[in-house]
Design brief:
The protein has 2 domains: 10-112, Alpha-Beta Plaits (2-Layer Sandwich); 118-230, 2-Layer Sandwich (Alpha-Beta Plaits), CATH 3.30.70.100. 29% of the residues lie in helices and 33% in strands. It has 6 helices and 9 strands; from the N terminus they run E-E-H-E-E-H-H-E-E-H-E-E-H-H-E. It has helices spanning 37-50, 83-91, 93-104, 145-161, 192-202, 211-217; strands at 10-13, 26-33, 60-68, 73-80, 114-123, 132-140, 169-177, 182-189, 222-238. The chain has an 8-stranded antiparallel barrel, surrounded by 4 helices. Helix 1 packs across helix 3 and helix 4 runs antiparallel to helix 6 (211-217). It is globular and about 55 Å long.
């Protein structure tokens, strides 16, 4: 597939991505170790510049860049219409983009994406714009699609059983990896302090303290879990979609 050598069709916007958009059939998530806030910004700027002269793929919906609040990592949350679109991108655009990023940031270690499909979401009807995105990454001891979904369902049961849910929680969007081994909760919070307060109140490292939360934490086959707090920095979208994006 030829890649036109024209001005970039990528536009930068500063609105939040919508994890629930129905046309996002697959999400590619990559985490980069950067080592500081300045390096985060350098990566974001280099990512935008790398698109110069490349046509925006028709099936690419949004590239959201998130900066961890400790300055150590950057997360790319990339929504695609389908897997075939990403496969075509891998043969055309991705080698060029990777080469340009490497040239701009020689110390950057390329991050292989993990592919997810959104499974379940919950969001407050009066949801404000989130000030903090909490990425909860869970890994199991082997591939099992039914177990992924059962764990997510257990979290929803725990949420429903909570008599006094934390006021700072806005939304939770659970994604299951296509290889059957991981779950990602893209959780929206009012701010970092609200999430920290919820964990401290529970005393068990969860946002609730009832027996169903303990069942979530001791779920059979659960290998590891990790929580990272981010702020949304920017998104890249097709220039034609930038108005109102």
């Amino acid at each position: 597939m030829p890649i036109p050598s024209t001005t970039s069709t990528a536009a930068t916007v500063h609105t939040q991505p919508d994890p629930t958009r129905p046309d996002a059939g697959i999400v590619a998530v990559s985490e980069f170790q950067v080592g500081g806030a300045d390096q985060q910004q350098a990566l974001f700027e280099a990512s935008r510049a790398a698109w110069d002269g490349l046509a925006w793929p028709e099936t690419l919906l949004s590239i959201a860049w998130l900066a961890s609040l400790d300055g150590q990592t950057a997360l790319a949350y990339v929504q695609w219409r389908d897997e075939s679109g990403f496969d075509a991108f891998g043969r055309t655009h991705r080698p060029i983009l990777t080469a340009r990023l490497t040239a701009a940031l020689p110390a950057l270690t390329p991050a292989a994406p993990v592919f997810y499909r959104r499974y379940r979401s919950a969001r407050r009807p009066d949801a404000p714009v989130p000030g903090c995105i909490v990425a909860v990454s869970v890994e199991f001891d082997g591939p099992d699609e039914a177990r992924q979904r059962a764990w997510v369902d257990a979290v929803f049961d725990a949420l429903a059983s909570e008599p006094d849910p934390p006021a700072g929680g806005i939304g939770a969007h659970f994604h299951v990896s296509t290889d059957g081994t991981r779950v990602l909760n893209y959780a929206e919070w009012v701010d970092e302090a609200s999430h920290i307060a919820a964990l401290e109140r529970s005393g068990i490292g969860a946002i609730g303290s009832g027996p169903k939360w303990r069942a979530v934490q001791t779920f059979p086959g659960l290998k590891a879990s990790r929580v990272t707090r981010y702020r949304m920095d920017r998104r890249l979208v097709a220039s034609a979609a930038a108005v109102g994006a």
